[in-house]
Structures are given as C-alpha cells and as structure tokens.
Amino acid sequence: MVLSDRSIKEELSAGRIVIDPLNERDIQPASIDLHLDNAILVFRNSSKPYIDVREDLSDLTERQEIPDDKPFILHPGEFVLGSTMEHIELPNDIVARLEGKSSLGRIGLVIHSTAGYIDPGWEGNLTLELTNVARLPITLYFGMRIGQISFQRMTTEVDRPYGSKELGSRYQGQSEPTTSRLHIDFDDRRAGKGG
C-alpha cells in the first residue's frame, strides 16, 4: 500500500522515516520531492577498451562540483552520477521507490537507469544515474528538484534489512555519489565467500 501525504507525515513525525533536510512544501500527495546535491561523478576518457565489471571502477570517474550560481551542463547521450541532498532512512517495514519528475522527463532527463528501488533499513543519500536522452544539452542546478520518493508499507518487517552484516550491503551510509561496487561479488567468489 502506497503511503499518502498524511501517512508520510505521521511516519516522519514518529522518526520512522527520516528525510534530512526536509521542507514541508516538498511533501506531495503520495511522495516527497528530492533535490540535487552539488557533487557529480563524471566518467572520464579512459585507456581501457571496455568496463570490466570484475574490477574496481572508481578510477573511471572524476568528481566535479556544481557551483551555487552556475549550471552543470549534461550533454546529449552523457551519463553521470549525482546524489540527493537529502539523507534518507527507512524502517524495516517500509520500502521506497525513486522516480523522476515528469517535468524533467519531458525534456529528456532520466534520473535512474535501474536503481529506483530502496530497501527497508536503508540509510544514506541516494546516488542518481543521470542521463540526457534529448538532442540538446540540459542544465542541472545545485538544489533543483530532481526526483520524488514514494513509500510502501510491507506485509511484515523484513528479517534482514539493508545494511545487515550478512547481506554485505555495499552502499549503506553513502553520503555522495558512489560508483559501482559490483566487483565485490567477484572478489567474494575468489575468496570463497559467495556462490
């Protein structure tokens, strides 16, 4: 069941859902608007002929900051990683979905490729997978509304929330854009820890 604005406010007041910072005007009928932080990870030109998912990929990106008064220009076909300004925490019986704003979708901005699902127990800022599918460059401003998060109550609390030690949750507690940590799967297999 998707939480209404009234239920979202109740969960926020009880401290079960945390959105920080939060402006009341960002609470929509069934979601909360989220804003773009100033850190952007830009994929730089590499001498590598391909991306090997078995390797640490953190050296493929370069951190840039969006100035307070000037935009970051996202060119057609370009893909960068951004982050929400908001730190988000979910209880063990609520799951969330991240979606783009329709006004941005209508100009060709995609805010996530596949990572729109936020597990119960999540704590941290969300990494955004920003892509321009339009034919013209799109401006991105620090603090602009970039997406919206909605919440669903689960049938029961989960047994192993995101961040549980046995899950090996890779992104728990992140505070800025974070590159893929897929290589950990292969590291664990080589070390005999996974299947």
In short:
With 195 residues, the chain is mostly beta strands. The chain has 3 helices and 12 strands. The protein has helices spanning 5-13, 102-105, 183-190; strands spanning 18-20, 32-35, 39-43, 61-65, 72-74, 79-89, 94-100, 109-110, 117-118, 123-132, 138-140, 145-153.
Order of helices and strands: HEEEEEEEHEEEEEH
Question: Quick one: biggest sheet?
Answer: 6 strands, antiparallel
| SS-based class | mainly beta
What proportion of the residues form beta strands (DSSP E)? 25-35%
Global mean pLDDT: 92
Give the count of helical stretches: 3
Topology, number of strands: 12
User: How much is the radius of gyration in Å?
Assistant: 18 Å
Helix content: 10-25%
The shape, in one word, is globular
The end-to-end span amounts to 34 Å
Ranges where pLDDT stays below 50 over 5 or more residues in a row are none
